[in-house]
Amino acid sequence: MATARASTRGKLDRRLEQLGEQISERLGELAEHERMALTGWRDGIIAGTYDVDHEALMEQPYESIRRIDRWTEEYDPADYETTQPVSASSNPNAELLKFLRTGLD
């Protein structure tokens, strides 16, 4: 970053500040038990606050603490079968042409 332009450094600094604010907002949304489940925290200077322990975070791989429910929908193909048999004498193309020509004759 030493060779980067001042405008580029300014943009990166502003982006990092925005990301820090977003992280703080998201952490504020966590419940107490979710915060306790997170690793990489250390007690803050003010009682009841936490600071991020960057060294601990870099040492550990990412682990999600949110529960994600996934399921597959199962269906029975018999439920989707047509109850009316299609007759061989009906021609869908002829019916479509008849419909399109209504009003033209």
Brief account:
The chain is 44% helix and 6% strand. It is mainly alpha-helical. Strands 1-2 form a two-stranded antiparallel ribbon.
Describe the structure.
By secondary structure, this protein is mostly helical. The protein has four helices and two strands; from the N terminus they run H-H-E-E-H-H. Strands 1-2 form a two-stranded antiparallel sheet. Strand 1 (41-43) and strand 2 form a beta hairpin.
Radius of gyration over C-alpha positions, nearest whole angstrom: 31 Å
Total E-strand runs: 2
pLDDT < 50 stretches: none
Coarse structural class? mainly alpha
Could you tell me how far the N terminus lies from the C terminus, measured between alpha carbons in angstroms? 77 Å
Shape, per Cα inertia axes:
elongated
Q: Oligomeric state of the chains?
A: single chain
Helix proportion of residues, in percent? 40-55%
Q: Can you give the mean pLDDT?
A: 76
Give the H and E element order. HHEEHH
Q: Approximately how much beta-strand content do the residues carry?
A: 5-15%
Largest sheet: 2 strands, antiparallel
Output the number of helix runs. Answer: 4
Strand order of the largest sheet: 1-2
What are the main properties of this structure?
mainly alpha; 6% strand
Write the topology of this structure.
Layout: H1 6-29, H2 32-37, E1 41-43, E2 50-52, H3 54-59, H4 92-101
Antiparallel strand pairs: 1-2
